[in-house]
Amino acid sequence: MNRKALIFGALALAAHPGHAKAQQAASLPPAGGVQAIPGGQAERGADSMIPPITPGMIKALGNRLGENKRAQEEVMTQYAAPDSRRVVVSFTPGQPTPIIQVVKGYPTAVSFFDTTGEPWPIAWDTNSNPAGATGGVNCNSNSSGNGAAIATVGFYVCTPVQGSNVLQITPASLSPRGGLLVNLQGAPKPFSFVLIGGGSRYDADLSVQVSSKGPKAKTPIAQAAAPDTASPFLTALLDGVAPAEATPLSVSGVSPDDLRAWRVGDRIILRTRYTLVSPEWTASESAEGGLTVYSIPQTPVVLLSAEGRTVSASLAE
């Protein structure tokens, strides 16, 4: 068949009315405007339009959410290093006001002790809810109260139990500034503290030693007739900080954890939880937990009372 015959046949088919209608009907979509697709081709086509989510994409999204959460927490809670220290206060007028360093997100414990090292309880109002400061959070319940005789603004301050000598302090904001008043049981006046927040360090454990006897003061140990008044370093030795001129002494007969000794000039300084029996001490200072520092004359042996029994300890350089 030549080329002219093929062209003539195609024109004849296009001019046929029935063929034109069939071709037009085949090109129109079905009723409703949606072209029918046989079998499950429609569902497979819809699925192919959704981009695939791989396990790696899910992990990447989770990491981004975690980083955002960590960044938010870092903005609201800063990093801070804890301090454990001790301050000495008294009821004498004109004394400096101690500073308590706090940081949001880190609790601070302030414990009160008398001059004999015994706990000094915080004053209490038995007609109110236990263990809560005004406007603060109650340690024992979800409601606020005014049980402990304390006052503060901008901080949550409470005592764990009635009759406790401990205050728990938590800042209410990132950089609070304020004061704290604490009334101790039977004390003639309250103690005042300055609270400062937002630094890089905070007082995790602050021991406040009052230079007076409290309601639980233990019986004093008889001292020598001539007290040694030239030992300003006794307070530092209670914290385990010996002066530069102190020479450590070796201890035998008792555990070094129970007795430490130094030679300072012509004196010997003992730091122990035991009670010194012999020789007589010329100066003494006590802290919490029964810890006591004694200043005694030079001697190679000391006698100590430990839980009702007498023990001997030898000292040597």
Distinctive features:
alpha+beta, 5 helices
Provide a descriptive summary of the structure in words:
- With 317 residues, the protein is an alpha+beta fold.
- Among the domains are: 81-210, no CATH class; 234-316, no CATH class.
- It contains five helices and 17 strands.
- The strands form three sheets. It has an eight-stranded antiparallel sheet. A five-stranded mixed sheet has the order 1-9-3-6-5, with no helix packed on it. A four-stranded mixed sheet has the order 2-8-7-4, with no helix packed on it.
- Strand 11 and strand 12 form a beta hairpin.
Write the topology of this structure:
Layout: H1 3-15, H2 17-27, H3 41-49, H4 55-76, E1 81-89, E2 99-102, E3 108-113, E4 150-152, E5 155-158, E6 166-171, E7 177-182, E8 191-197, E9 201-210, H5 234-238, E10 247-252, E11 259-264, E12 267-272, E13 275-278, E14 283-286, E15 292-297, E16 301-306, E17 309-316
Parallel strand pairs: 1-9, 2-8, 3-9
Antiparallel strand pairs: 3-6, 4-7, 5-6, 7-8, 10-11, 10-17, 11-12, 12-15, 13-16, 14-15, 16-17
Summarize the structure.
The protein has 317 residues and is α+β, with helices and mostly antiparallel strands.
Low-confidence stretches: 10-15, 24-28, 127-138, 140-146
Strand order of the largest sheet: 13-16-17-10-11-12-15-14
Q: Provide the succession of SSEs.
A: HHHHEEEEEEEEEHEEEEEEEE
Distance between the termini: 128 Å
Estimated radius of gyration: 41 Å
Number of strands: 17
The amount of helix comes to 10-25%
Instruction: Output mean pLDDT.
Output: 75
Structural class: alpha+beta
| Structural shape | extended
